[in-house]
Amino acid sequence: MSNTNKILLALSVVLILSVLIGLLYFARISFINKKLFHDTILMTGVEINTEWKEIDVRNLIKIDKDRHFIALYLDTPFEEPHGARGIKIPSGQVINPEIKLIDESGEEYLFVHSGARGTDISNYSSEKELPKKKVYQKLLIRSDFPIKTKEILWSGYDTKDLR
To answer: Which of 62, 91, 94, 157 is in the most buried spot, having the most CB atoms within 10 Å?
Structure first.
């Protein structure tokens, strides 16, 4: 076997191993995310726009984890690039919708951007602690720029599961 063939064989092996390691890494992250997060679908196929979208969340939102947030599963062409602090719209601008959770007594809980899961799920957490014994009736969401979502999720996890 010539030196050129040996080099090509070695490069091929390195490339194949790199691809396999990458696939295993992403499969592991996907498994961890599915195991770690408990998601409840609040609504599917939603376009968030300037009008307040009202979602009935009675029987859907429960405070049973250490951490809770609204997760927007974004549809193309919307994404949340690493470190973006919000949703990147087609023009390149980064925006965040307004989100409010309303309890049975009419008290509002404002949600602000708190992170992401990959580039297609943007997370929003309440600015103040959500009481466990309240009944939450509706979620209100709007945006000055229309945002297409595949799903709006109620997500949660327990910090002990991070270990």
So the answer is: 157
- Segment 97-125 shows an average pLDDT of 95
CA distance 16 to 37: 32
User: Percent helix, strand and coil across the chain, each rounded to 5?
Assistant: 25, 40, 35
39 is written with which tokens? 């998601």
Closest CA to 141 of 112, 117, 105: 112
* Buried/exposed code over 123-147 (b: 16+ C-beta within 10 A; e: otherwise): bbbbeeeeeeeeebbebebbbeeeb
Q: What are phi and psi of 5, to 5 degrees?
A: -65, -40
Residue 24: pLDDT over 70:
no
Which pTM does this prediction carry?
Answer: 0.76
Q: What are phi and psi of 110, to 5 degrees?
A: -85, 140
Least confident among 31-45, 84-98, 109-123: 31-45
Residue by residue, DSSP assigns 67-89 as EEEEEEEEPTT-B--TT-SSEEP
- On the question of pLDDT at 144 being above 80, the answer is yes
